[in-house]
Specification:
heterotrimer, A alpha/beta (261), B mainly alpha (301), C mainly alpha (342), A: 261 residues, alpha/beta, 4-stranded antiparallel beta sheet, 10 helices, 23% strand, globular, B: 301 residues, ABC transporter involved in vitamin B12 uptake, BtuC, two-stranded antiparallel ribbon, 2% strand
Chain lengths: 261, 301, 342
């Protein structure tokens, strides 16, 4: 469904993305992890058309989408939720969703009808149910709790009926309980829709529990990729996260293999 | 359009010199006002729509002081410092409440102050045109330069405004205070957390900007007739200058101001009906081609 | 009640009020006052399509007001067209003007958009001042505006003129209301709140901005037509930046979020001007102090303020009800949720 080949991007002298090649099969649930500054958000920006790569290809649904604007990638089917929820503060949840769905269905130029169009209500309700936002449908977006704002952020991305969904740190800013609630909703969403989902995440427990595959980025390049088990045992990954304090790394490795120090 | 007259003037030594000098002083006055505007916008992020009113106040303060003391120096001081004081009051009492608020709020607040100041001047000094007249010291014969005649006062104005411009440039780029001000423009919170009194700085910046406008008004007083509405046209023109030169850029304001000044002076001969139109067309052109202005620093699209 | 029906009834009510007032209070001064409110109300309401609905702050909206007045005046003076035809041509011509200007302006953001709209307006103003043979220069359109009969309507009668203007006014309000409550209107709200995200939801932001810019210009020109009809002339002040400034002030005074806020602001401003000029020649000072009180004190328009007070009370009441009746929600122990997943 989505494949990137030899993607590179530099900002001035900083190589934010270095020769990244990854294949994301249709319907997969993949986690992108890595220490801060590893270029994860830049990677998403390159895929969604927010910035242009210096080199490489992005192949989506069989077609090269290099050079397309972010507007065009959305129309092709790439949806995105953001690290900091990007909402419409003065609109209620329902209004924002209805407007998003209206825009996707091509109705945003309609001056003659009244908003919201009746025939879109089912779609709006469906997404709100999926994201557990239905009880809050009349709340102003700016009055939502942080967690609900992140949910609305994802719901808005869902309005564009994406084939690929990019979630940039969906659990950012949440406490442990809320994080599990959020990620279980993401998981349920994925299972219901069978879209290709990529998510950036920092909580390792969540990543290892949920993701089918994990790609680890460090300094813009792919450090490792594989199943959660493979990644968990990968010494380079351990080193990337815990640094080169050998005793600590040894302790972790020992713990992984079942022996104690 | 009268392009033959224009080319004739450019060819003739005396006409060219006259128009050049006129354009220069129009430009330099504009430069003073516009650099104050640019300074306030560059550092405080506020567009001071009331800036023209400060120019007007400077002229009236100078007039009053001159009539009271017969001293030109007092007039200059009253114009500059008096308006600086007004600027501080304006900043502390009113502008500080609309920092970070949207432009409409700032516009409205400044519009209100313009209305109030215009009427206040009308109340105290009357709405009729007033003249300050040329001080004794400059009332001599005009000086001959390169075949044309330039009033001595023009040279004085050029000198003072050039000095002010240099002082401003030097202050910002070569002093420690200037570095702090530059930092303030980029990251006010950081500057604040370094223990520097940002409130004082903000007031100071506003005072400096208003001082420049007031000084320009005081300089203009001997050669223009005073009326409460005189702030209006200088406001529009200084906006055009800051847009063309670039908001936040002092050198840009200089270039743009001179450009406008010469457009005015030579335009009065060549295309008198289209001078205003030409200025706005220039502004529109810059906004379309390079919205941040010739030397501006803030992005626009 | 369905929204369309409700809005229709409210429009009818507005029209009835407008028609009843000069009947109940027959002073011609009141009727004149109301026509000013109508003309400037249209200017302010149309500007709010840009400011309040789309987040586009234009400093140069009076250009289209002036275009309406001068266009209509010139067409009527030519003697070649009837009143309705002149109105349609003027609105169409202004729409074209707004299209050309808007196409250049909407590419710019925020304060630069404001400046370039101002630049275009002042350019048009200087054209009005200098093209004396066409516009009469700073004296305004000379010779008055003829009002030939059309469809049996004689606009030389003051009351007929008033009724005609009131009907046209309410029709325009209905149009603007429909636009505001349509899918197009809500897409504009998306653009106002978060243009980047709107873009990322597939919205063509520049094209939409241009469309509403043209619409707003067309509506403003109707205001200019009304004023030109009433004063039987057109003056350069119609296109001066102070007129644009007053329009913005009317919006802020009344409120940007309530649909009729700008109209309320126009009414308040006209009332203020009327009373203040009656008592003192320093109405600028009074106006300035009022503006300061509202912007620094209330921090939002009067209508918005009142509306918010009322809705706040309603929200607080319903929140209290929710608290009283809601069942306590327990939180899951961390372990159990984790086990639900995967």
């Amino acid at each position: 469904m989505l494949r990137v080949e030899h993607l590179t991007k530099s900002f001035g002298g900083v190589k934010a993305t270095r020769d990244v090649s990854i294949d994301f099969p249709a319907g997969s649930l993949t986690a992108i992890i890595g220490p801060n500054g590893a270029g994860k958000t830049t990677f998403f920006n390159l895929i969604s058309g927010h910035i242009r790569p210096d080199g490489g290809k992005v192949i989506f649904d069989g077609r090269d989408i290099l050079g397309l604007s972010s507007l065009q990638t959305v129309r092709r089917g790439i949806g995105r939720a953001f690290q900091v929820a990007s909402l419409f503060p003065s609109l209620t949840v329902r209004e924002a969703m209805a407007a998003a769905v209206t825009s996707h269905r091509g109705g945003s130029w309609n001056i003659l009808a009244r908003f919201p169009a009746v025939h879109l209500r089912d779609r709006v309700d469906e997404i709100l149910e999926l994201m557990d936002l239905a009880p809050k449908h009349s709340v102003l977006s700016r009055n939502l709790s942080h967690g609900d704002q992140k949910l609305l952020d994802i719901a808005l991305a869902m309005a564009t009926e994406p084939k690929v969904l990019l979630l940039d740190e969906p659990t950012a800013g949440m406490g442990p309980d809320e994080r599990w609630r959020m990620i279980s909703k993401v998981h349920r969403l994925w299972e219901a829709k069978r879209m290709t989902v990529l998510f950036i995440e920092h909580d390792m427990d969540i990543v290892f529990k949920i993701a089918q595959r994990i790609h680890v980025l460090k300094y813009g390049a792919v450090l490792a990729q594989g199943t959660p088990d493979e990644i968990r045992r990968n010494p380079e990954v351990i080193e990337a996260y815990l640094g080169t304090d050998h005793r600590l790394a040894e302790a972790v490795a020992a713990q992984q293999s079942g022996t104690s120090v | 359009m009268n392009l033959e007259a224009l080319t004739a003037c450019l060819g003739s030594g005396s006409c060219a010199v006259t128009q050049l000098s006129t354009g220069l002083i129009i430009g330099m006055l504009l430069f003073l006002v516009a650099s104050g505007l640019s300074l306030i916008f560059g550092v405080l992020g506020v567009i001071n729509f009331a800036h023209g009113a400060f120019y007007m106040l400077g002229a009236y303060f100078a007039l009053t002081a001159y009539q009271a003391t017969d001293s030109f120096l007092a007039a200059m001081a009253a114009g500059g410092l008096g308006v600086a004081l007004v600027g501080i009051l304006f900043e502390r009492l009113i502008i500080s409440r609309v920092y970070g608020r949207d432009v409409l709020m700032q516009l409205l607040v400044c519009y209100a102050v313009i209305l109030i100041l215009d009427d206040a001047v009308k109340m105290v000094l009357g709405a009729e045109y007033q003249m300050m007249g040329m001080p004794e010291v400059f009332a001599g014969a005009p000086i001959e330069i390169a075949g044309g005649f330039v009033p001595g006062y023009y040279l004085f104005m050029l000198g003072v405004s050039a000095l002010a411009g240099l002082a401003l440039w030097f202050g910002i780029n070569r002093t420690r205070l200037g570095k702090i001000v530059q930092a303030l423009a980029i990251n006010p919170q950081m500057v604040g957390s370094l223990g520097i009194n940002t409130t004082l700085l903000y007031a100071g910046i506003f005072a400096t900007g208003s001082l420049l406008a007031g000084l320009a008004g005081a300089l203009a007083a001997p050669i223009r007739s005073l009326t409460p509405g005189m702030g209006l046209s200088i406001l529009i023109e200084s906006f055009i200058v800051t847009v063309i030169g670039g908001m936040g850029s002092i050198p840009g304001a200089l270039i743009a101001a001179l450009l406008i000044g010469f457009t005015r002076s030579f335009g009065a001969i060549g295309f008198p009906l289209f001078v205003d139109g030409a200025m706005f067309a220039l502004m529109a052109l810059v906004l379309v081609l390079k919205p941040s202005g010739l030397l501006g620093t803030r992005a626009a699209t | 009640m369905r929204p369309v029906l409700r809005d229709g009834l409210l429009a009818l009510l507005l029209l009835l009020v407008l028609l009843a007032v000069p009947v109940l209070f027959p002073q011609p001064a009141l009727r004149d006052f109301l026509i000013y409110v109508i003309a400037y109300g249209l200017l302010a309401m149309s500007l709010n399509l840009l400011v309040g609905l789309t987040g586009l702050v234009s400093f140069g909206h009076a250009a289209y007001f002036a275009s309406g007045a001068y266009g209509f005046g010139l067409l009527m003076q030519s003697g070649a067209v009837s009143v309705p035809a002149a109105m349609l041509l003027t609105v169409g011509g202004t729409a074209l003007l707004a299209f050309v200007i808007g196409a250049i302006c909407v590419r710019l953001k925020d304060i630069y958009f404001a400046f370039i709209t101002l630049a275009f307006q002042m350019f048009i103003h200087s054209v009005i001042l200098t093209w004396i043979s066409l516009t009469g220069g700073d004296q305004g359109l000379r010779g008055g505006i003829p009002r030939p009969r059309f469809l049996g309507i004689d606009l030389t009668d003051a009351m007929t003129l008033y009724v005609f203007c009131a009907v046209v006014f309410v029709a325009c309000i209905v149009v603007m209301r429909q636009v505001s409550q349509s899918p197009f209107g809500y897409t504009l709200r998306l653009i106002r709140d978060n243009p980047a995200r709107a873009n990322f939801l597939g919205v063509d932001v520049p094209r939409m901005k241009l469309c509403v810019f043209v619409l707003a210009g067309a509506m403003a020109s109707v205001g200019g037509i009304v004023l030109a009809l009433f004063v039987s002339g057109a003056y350069p002040e119609f296109g001066f930046w102070t007129t644009s400034g007053e329009a913005i002030f009317m919006i802020m005074l009344g409120g940007t979020q309530l649909f009729l806020g700008p109209l309320i602001g126009a009414l308040l401003l006209q009332t203020l001007n009327h009373f203040v000029t009656a008592y003192t020649e320093y109405h600028g000072m009074v106006l300035g102090l009022v503006i300061l009180a509202i912007t620094l004190g209330l921090r939002r328009g009067i209508a918005d303020f009142v509306y918010e007070q009322m809705t706040d009370r309603a929200v607080r009441r319903s929140a209290a009800r929710l608290d009283a009746g809601a069942a306590p929600t327990g939180s899951h122990a961390p372990g159990s949720i984790k086990d639900e997943v995967a």
